[in-house]
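[Q] Does anyone have a clean structure-token version of this?
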Amino acid sequence: MPSFDNRDLIVREDILSRARELANLITTTEEVGVYQQAEKRIQTHERVQGLIAQIKKKQKELVAFQNTFKNPAMVEKIEAEISVLQDELDGIPIVQQFQQSQVDVNYMLQSIISIIRDTVADKIEVEAAKPAEDPETCD
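[A] Here you go.
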């Protein structure tokens, strides 16, 4: 029986072609469209971008106070500030829509992966269960 090393595994071109075709179909779904629209709105929304910038700045401060200054009191204070900023960000409707669209696209992708995995597993089990030779001729 041949053995395969993942580094040497070659996928047939027709399978790769179908995978690209499936990927292109996925990008045309309503879920991906909603995600892309929400992402564009988030990127151009001043308040959202301002909050994201503030959170990133606070996260850098947090790392400095944790690692360099070893100041637990400031770490706690900055964590609380980040939490307030994150809550404000999460409360903005377009951010909620964006987060939901991420969940929806992820669910769709996970469903597709599950269908492929289950279909392949079913086929392998059926093929493995077939007798290699006619049982009446075996001794």
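[Q] Thanks! Anything notable?
[A] The two ends are 23 Å apart (CA to CA).
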